[in-house]
Amino acid sequence: MSDKTDSEQIDDIIAQLAGWKHETVASLRAAIRAADPDVVEAVKYKKPSKPEGVPFWTHDGDLCFVDVLKNAVRLTFSKGARMPQSDLFNTRLDSKVVRGIDFVEGSTVDRSAIGELVADAVRINAG
């Protein structure tokens, strides 16, 4: 069990990444935190294949999480299927629950657009 806060654990996850993945996750985190000052950071899904866990952001329920894949960084919105349609969503489009955005090397993070999606997710959780 870690003595570190969830935010400190997310700091560590980002610090372990290199290059474009490091930049992408750091940029996504900054966009999420800027969009919702009341967002709560959490680390979930710790397992042997991913002992560091997965960074999550919550506000009255799960908002989104970031998973670092082999060739992408995926931002998944937990209730994305209930959110307004966005051209940013490019994966998990057939899911009845979530929607995701895969960032690959060379992708840029549109912090304003991500912020709008976070605001939509917060509104859905406030229900």
Overview of this structure, please?
- The protein has a single domain, classed as Alpha-Beta Complex (Aspartate Aminotransferase, domain 1).
- Helix content is 35%, strand content 21%.
- It has 3 helices and 5 strands, in the order ααβββββα.
- Strands 1-2-3-4-5 form a 5-stranded antiparallel sheet.
- The longest helix is centred in the first third of the chain and has 17 residues, at 19-35.
- The N and C termini lie far apart (34 Å).
Question: What's the short story on this structure?
Answer:
The chain has helices at residues 6-16, 19-35, 111-126, and strands at residues 40-44, 54-58, 62-68, 73-77, 99-103. It has 127 residues and is an alpha+beta fold. The protein has a single domain (6-126), classed as Alpha-Beta Complex (Aspartate Aminotransferase, domain 1), CATH 3.90.1150.200.
How are the elements arranged and paired?
Blueprint: H1 6-16, H2 19-35, E1 40-44, E2 54-58, E3 62-68, E4 73-77, E5 99-103, H3 111-126
Antiparallel strand pairs: 1-2, 2-3, 3-4, 4-5
- Element order: H for helix, E for strand: HHEEEEEH
- Low-confidence stretches at least 5 residues in length (pLDDT < 50)? none
Give the helix proportion (percent range).
Answer: 25-40%
Strand percentage: 15-25%
- Mean pLDDT across all residues, rounded? 96
Q: How many strands appear in the DSSP assignment?
A: 5
Termini separation comes to: 34 Å
Question: Architecture, according to CATH?
Answer: Alpha-Beta Complex
- Strands of the biggest beta sheet: in what spatial order? 1-2-3-4-5
Q: Supply Rg.
A: 14 Å
* Individual helix count: 3
Question: How many domains would you count in the coordinates?
Answer: 1
| CATH class value | Alpha Beta
The major sheet is characterized as: 5 strands, antiparallel
CATH fold descriptor = Aspartate Aminotransferase, domain 1
Structural class label: alpha+beta
Pfam family, one: DUF1801
Protein name: DUF1801 domain-containing protein
Domain YdhG-like: 22-122
Organism: Microbacterium helvum
